[in-house]
Design a protein that fits this description.
The protein is an alpha+beta fold. It contains 13 helices and 19 strands. 46% of the residues are buried.
Length: 458
């Protein structure tokens, strides 16, 4: 028997987190081939952003079933900037257990580089937005739909092969009025649709999706975008060339393609049949955290890792772009933390990197949250093996832990896509093994099965 004292209540709010322009935009940089065949090296942006194309937003969704409480944040950023500060501040301000606060991002490559002033803005807006979501909470139900759209995306590691165009939509409704409290969207494509000479702040296609969804559902409805398993999925506006890491905007590329992708995703999602509203007796909220121990292989020993830790400046000397130089203090902290972790892992008998994950379920809906960029094939396998009828996967959540791609990437010789497999190996000295993707999927499926079994036993 459940000891829930009242129905599920949900509140949602959103805030503008667009920094004052000009700022340095994050992500990678220009790379292009001239008509005469001249190849320009892969470089970073060489100047601050030239303006703001559209606003960057942050949403907060609060859930309370009378027993447990949770709060989900989503922001138009590349990775969860200032994650520890934001999650702790929101938990303290809203009276929610720290392990029940989740911070996700859209993996946007046209957002701002991390810097102190922007962190202050983020913390302030996240706390105020979360508080407002708590105030807005009211009895709620959910309706979900599933669709697909894959005509403007491709797998950049196998451009002519299949790709995951699954669209998952969850509309949260006021149980008494049927007004939409918020709408959650999950889709797997990099928010990196533009050539890097488009040096303006933008939310990329999740921003376009949000504008289209608001036009259909109501301008005041918070639209929450959760980045799916898009580790190797790209918008067609950016084309792969044979030269390592070379991208060139195609004729179909540009901001028009971004708008088209957002529009088509929303059109397909809203045209799909929605399930009946979730009944009150099936609205229990469950939350769990777990650890995934991903096996790694080291390419150097403890002495070399220690030497790198003692000589961080040598690694930072490899920052060959102006945006990286601007970001150097942040990179120094990231490298220091990564090398400290590597020193602990390298001495293990069976080296493995511990990656945090989380699950949040409501009825037959499961939301899996991981800090990685995950290949779409792994996401597809998780959904197929999940005991929940609807499983959404939110990547780049809680933290950022790099790529996790298919096993064959770790088995083959390194090529121009090796960075998806080796990640920060040139810094930390290790990469995941071919077993890591299998451990990842099996650990998440086991966590889903456990929470499903626990709910059935109540």
């Amino acid at each position: 028997m459940s000891n829930r004292t009242r129905d599920l209540c949900v509140g949602a709010s959103e805030a503008d987190i667009t920094p004052p322009a000009p700022v340095w935009a994050i992500g990678m940089g220009n790379a292009f081939v001239e008509p005469d065949g001249t190849v320009h090296e892969y470089t970073g942006r060489h100047e601050p952003s030239r303006g703001i194309h559209d606003q960057l937003m942050l949403q907060a969704v609060y859930l309370d079933d009378g027993v447990g409480k949770a709060l989900l944040l989503s922001a138009d950023l590349l990775y969860p900037i200032a994650a520890p500060e934001i999650m702790a501040a929101v938990a303290d301000s809203c009276g929610i257990a720290p392990e029940a606060v989740f911070y996700s991002v859209t993996h946007n490559h046209n957002g701002p580089v991390e810097h102190p002033a922007f962190i202050d803005l983020l913390v302030k807006e996240a706390v105020e937005c979360a508080r407002d979501a708590v105030k807005q909470a009211r009895p709620a139900t959910m309706r979900r739909a599933s669709a697909a759209y894959d005509r403007l995306i491709y797998d950049r590691s196998a451009p002519w092969g299949p790709v995951d165009g699954r669209i998952a939509v969850v509309n949260v409704l006021d149980r008494n009025t049927d007004d939409i409290i918020c709408s959650l969207w999950n889709y797997a494509c990099h928010s990196c649709s533009l050539s890097y000479d488009f040096n303006m702040i933008t939310a990329d296609y999740p921003g376009a999706l949000r504008r289209c969804a608001k036009a259909a559902l109501g301008q005041r409805v918070p639209i929450v975008f959760l980045a799916g398993c898009a580790g190797n999925v790209q918008c067609v506006g950016v084309k792969r060339f044979a030269t390592p890491r070379m991208y060139l905007n195609t004729l179909r590329g540009g901001i028009e393609t971004v708008e088209q992708l957002g529009d088509h995703i929303v059109a397909a999602g809203l045209a799909a049949p929605f399930t009946p509203p979730l009944p009150p007796e099936n609205s229990r909220l469950s939350i769990s955290r777990f650890t995934i121990n991903l096996p790694v292989v080291f390419e150097c020993g403890v002495d070399e890792i220690g030497r790198r830790r003692d000589h961080i400046d040598e690694l930072l000397a490899g920052c060959n772009t102006q945006v990286e130089s601007y970001w150097k203090e942040t990179l120094k902290r990231v490298y220091e933390e990564a090398l400290d972790e590597a020193l602990e892992i390298v001495i293990q008998d069976e080296p493995a990197r511990a990656v945090d994950g989380a699950l949040m379920t409501v009825g037959d809906l499961a939301l899996v949250m991981v800090p990685l960029e995950v290949a779409w094939q792994l996401g597809s396998e998780i959904r197929q093996r999940s005991p929940f009828p609807a499983t959404m996967i939110a990547t780049t959540t809680l933290d950022y832990a790099g790529y996790l791609t298919c096993s064959h990437f770790y088995e083959q010789e390194r090529d121009d896509w090796a960075y998806e497999a080796i990640g920060m190996a040139p810094v930390v000295g290790y990469a995941y093994t071919p077993l890591a993707p299998k451990v990842f999927v099996s650990t998440i499926v086991a966590a889903l099965e456990k929470i499903d079994n626990d709910s059935r036993s109540r």
